[in-house]
Amino acid sequence: MMSTVGRSAARSAGSAAGFVWEHFKFNVASAMEYRWSFISQVSFMVLNDFLLLFFWWLIFGKVQAIGGWTFADVITMHAVLAASYGLSVSVFGNVNRLARIIAEGQLDYYLLLPRNPLLHALVSRSDLSGLGDVAFGLAAFCLFTPVTLGRLALFVIVSLASCTVYTCFAVIAGSIAFFIGNAQTISLQLLGALITFGGYPGSIFKGLVRAVLYSVIPVGFVVYVPVSLLHNFSVAHLAGLLAFAAAIAWAASWLFGAGLRRYESGNLVSARI
Amino acid sequence: MRAVTVTAVTTGSAAVTGLAKYFHVARISMRARTAYLADFLLGSVFYALILYVFVQLWSVLGRTRGFVVEGFGPRELVWYLMASEAIMLGRARFEQETDEEVKTGAISYCLNKPYHYILFKLASYWGETALKMMLNIVIGSAVALAAVGPIAVHPAHLCAVLVCAALALTLNFFIGMALSLLAFWVEDTAPFFWIYSKVLFVLGGLFAPMEVYPDALARAARATPFNYVLYAPARLFVQFDMDFFLRTVTMQVAWVAALAFLVMALYRTGVRRLDVNGG
Prior knowledge:
Chain A is mainly alpha-helical. Chain A contains twelve helices and no strands. The relative contact order of chain A is 0.13. Helix content of chain B is 75%, strand content 0%. Chain B has helices at 2-34, 37-42, 45-62, 74-90, 95-104, 108-111, 117-148, 155-181, 190-203, 215-222, 231-238, 242-273. Chain A binds chain B through residues 34, 36-37, 40-41, 43-45, 47-48, 51-52, 54-55, 58-59, 61-67, 129, 185-186, 189, 192-193, 196-197, 200, 203-205, and chain B through 39, 42-43, 45-46, 49-50, 53, 56-57, 60-61, 64-68, 186-188, 190-192, 194-195, 197-199, 201-202, 207-208, 212-214.
């Protein structure tokens, strides 16, 4: 029998999910007003992502593996990275702009409303080119790697976990703005570093850099662990990935809350219509 | 005779004054970038990061059986990437701004100014690009030197490569401007730029020289203008060859002229279609 606390938590999670879904639907509907823009953004992003595989096609035309990674592993890597990043920016469209929102005092609007200000700020915009990334991720995974229903389900699970890690890391990077003011460049550099490292086989990085990629810039949990799980499933690794996703979600929420206590409203005059 | 001389001097003076204003635009654009120096320098971290990643990749591939690129060892591949990425990341990003100016009608405010919009944009582009290129060359050389050691480059060849790189960046401007001006006809030009950057990646030889490509693909890529933006200057930097240099410069000038003509035609046609709502 579920306790009162459990029921309350479930109700709260359900309400948050509904809130996110309604915002996403609204943002898609707005984007559909500019139909060519929407269609071109999504379709060109799919093409853009497929062209990324070209370099690896050239390299794997000459070698069988790079540090133990096969062509299928590299495609899986790009598929997971694209799906998780695409999901993050299409649902939580302000995720890469959080530092700017904080620095310009634009959080004021969300603080006045009866919803979690972090969640509200993240979902109030959608970058719908991310849907092209998600489509590419699914298509590349299904077309170029051996796919079964079980592997497809695992791909969805690890992509959701990876998306959580990316989104929370972006919140942490953006929350730096609470403490140092103008943190847009450093925040974008951290996110850029994660995406850059995530586009190359993890086996080429050794020593200290490898340690950094599993801690300070958690690309290991966004890409390398999911690829390893899809290559060779292990319950312990999946549990580790989910535990890290839960831990970073808690850390992001805590840091944003701590930063919010230092937040000073801006005097920039802006209109939300 | 005197009248002819006076006319020639006046015309020459007007041309110099005309060019001087664009020089000032370039200078202002350069100074605007240095106003936020820390921000500007941090922007180069990405470039250093890419070089680091590729140093790791090429060193792993260098130890892998079967990976041979004609004329390029791991050291040359790293220096090739240093040059191609310096150009790729050194390009000022004017496209989004131009797209916005066209879409919002802000371009109309430029029509009655004493400059040509396209030349104004070119000057502004070059001001920022020159600064970014200088910084990229310093940072890239430091990373490549630390990672794989020096390569032999003759100073005269270096000057020739700089000419080739300047033409490459000008060619990039006209391609970018042609795509931006399509905003007169379509809602959003951003997707064209995603594809352009990937076309540079594939047909421009961003990460690897065309010696890595299968023959048919390398031939196809060499027939496009994109290889003159990245591959040709980067290859000349690593392996200078006078014949290849002359061929490259000739083709770059031809492509710049053709695209400049296209851009001017698009601009004239587009401005005639301009429809601005007051407010």
